[in-house]
Amino acid sequence: MINDSIDRYGSVTRFFHWLVAVLVIQQFFKFGDIINDGKHWLGETFGPYHTSVGAIIMILAILRLLWSMKQKNQRPIIEGANSKLVKTVHGIMYFCLIAMPPLGALYIHGHGYPVKIFGQVLIEKPAEKIQWAQNVGELHSILAILLAILVIGHIAVALYHHFIRKDDTLRRMA
């Protein structure tokens, strides 16, 4: 089943969800740069791909958002007092996934480096550092921390529904 239904998310929605989930968790390894000024296997292994994977995540998030809007009237219904909270958290997560790559590019560019995606220069190296781009780009880190907290919460709530409430919330996305 490609499309969503009242009982379960369709294969396209599940594909977007799990692919983005794996890529986002991989991106969190960038936090390894904090360890020993990036001279750690986490930063050295995942760091070079961080910008490129971030661009992929942004594109996938936009496509997933468009697909979600198309599927809106046939998706599983979120009921109860927490429905507004669930929708708000999902909205913030989408915002982070879409806003973080451009903010990261501003951060890189503002510090005087070219922005490269898969080795191809997307934005040339500036003649000098750009202070406003550095300042705005700092929001990337703030959103990364916010997203990490929301992802941990998202996983915790899914596991709560599966193991404590024993409902079909997690199964709808599996």
From TrEMBL:
GO molecular function: electron transfer activity; heme binding; metal ion binding
Key words, A-Z: Cell membrane, Electron transport, Heme, Iron, Membrane, Metal-binding, Transmembrane, Transmembrane helix, Transport
Topology term for the membrane: Multi-pass membrane protein
Localization, UniProt: Cell membrane
Cofactor requirements of the protein: heme b
Major site of localization recorded for this protein: membrane
GO biological process: respiratory electron transport chain
GO terms under cellular component: plasma membrane
Segments forming domain Cytochrome b561 bacterial/Ni-hydrogenase: 8-173
InterPro entries: Cyt_b561_bac/Ni-Hgenase, Cytochrome_b561_oxidase, Di-haem_cyt_TM
Transmembrane residue ranges: 12-29, 49-67, 88-108, 142-163
Organism superkingdom: Bacteria
SUPFAM superfamilies per UniProt: Transmembrane di-heme cytochromes (SSF81342)
Family the UniProt entry places it in: Belongs to the cytochrome b561 family.
Protein name, UniProt field: Cytochrome b561
